[in-house]
């Protein structure tokens, strides 16, 4: 149970207690109820929006990794106990299969959600943070599909970024521009473990060689 859920449950319990006490005393404390009800409604609405985005991202991940556990967007409370530097992570069981959903950090999920909900015009030139967030979703979905090598996962993910962007509302031309932006502006700066000379047009990792399209 996430911190936000705990807070919602606690506030709801407190609200119920105030109402019950007020009814018993025949004097409902409306001010106290309002003080609790306002943040409770805000938290509930925020969580509902968050869950909706998480479900969308899970559906996209499963288009790449059918039958997988999908995506878990980190909640704000989880950021205080997360010591990793990765924007996304998949844990593996002893048999090598993905153990649970892919975790995507709170900030990355925010950027991903912003891209998904942005207007058609805004998708013409999304901020680099959103470009990276879309790729993180694709990259972690490739891990869910069984890819373990970071360099091979990265290469296959770059070739799926345009498809994922379209599933998030981009047009084909916008989606291809996003994939090219990641390839040119981000991938060259990735750690060595995420890069390989096999990742090139018509190379061993090109999924559609000789089509003159890259990535």
Give a verbal description of the structure.
This protein has 215 residues and is mainly alpha-helical. It has a domain at 54-194. The chain contains seven helices and three strands. It has a three-stranded mixed sheet. Helix 3 packs across helix 4 (128-144) and helix 4 packs across helix 5 (150-158). The longest helix is centred in the N-terminal third of the chain and has 35 residues, at 30-64. The radius of gyration is 21 Å and the shape is globular.
Task: Briefly characterize the structure.
55% of the residues lie in helices and 4% in strands.
Q: Key features?
A:
3-stranded mixed sheet, mainly alpha, 3 strands, 215 residues
The percent range for strand residues is under 5%
Order of helices and strands: HHEEEHHHHH
Q: What average pLDDT do the residues reach? A: 85
Decide which structural class fits the backbone.
Answer: mainly alpha
Tally of DSSP helical segments: 7
Overall strand count? 3
Q: Sum up the overall morphology in one term.
A: globular
**Largest pleated sheet:** 3 strands, mixed
**If you compute it from the alpha carbons, what radius of gyration comes out, rounded to the nearest whole angstrom?**
21 Å
**Main sheet: strand order:** 1-3-2
- Terminus-to-terminus distance: 39 Å
């Amino acid at each position: 149970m996430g911190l936000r859920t705990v807070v919602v449950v606690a506030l709801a319990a407190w609200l119920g207690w105030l109402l019950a006490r007020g009814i018993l005393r025949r004097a409902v404390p409306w001010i106290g109820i309002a003080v609790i009800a306002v943040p409770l409604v805000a938290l509930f609405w925020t969580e509902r929006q968050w869950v909706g985005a998480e479900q969308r991202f899970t559906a996209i991940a499963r288009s790449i990794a059918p039958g997988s556990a999908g995506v878990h967007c980190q909640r704000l409370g989880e950021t205080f106990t997360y010591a990793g530097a990765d924007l996304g992570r998949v844990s593996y069981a002893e048999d090598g299969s993905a153990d649970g959903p892919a975790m995507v950090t709170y900030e990355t999920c925010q950027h991903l959600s912003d891209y998904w909900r942005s207007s058609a015009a805004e998708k013409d030139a999304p901020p680099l943070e959103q470009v990276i967030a879309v790729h993180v979703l694709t990259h972690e979905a490739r891990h869910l599909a069984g890819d373990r090598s970071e360099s091979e996962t990265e290469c296959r993910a770059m070739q799926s970024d345009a498809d994922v962007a379209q599933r998030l509302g981009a047009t084909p031309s916008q989606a291809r521009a996003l994939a090219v932006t990641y390839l040119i502006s981000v991938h060259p700066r990735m750690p060595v473990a995420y890069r390989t000379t096999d990742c090139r047009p018509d190379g061993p990792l090109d999924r559609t060689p000789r089509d003159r399209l890259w990535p």
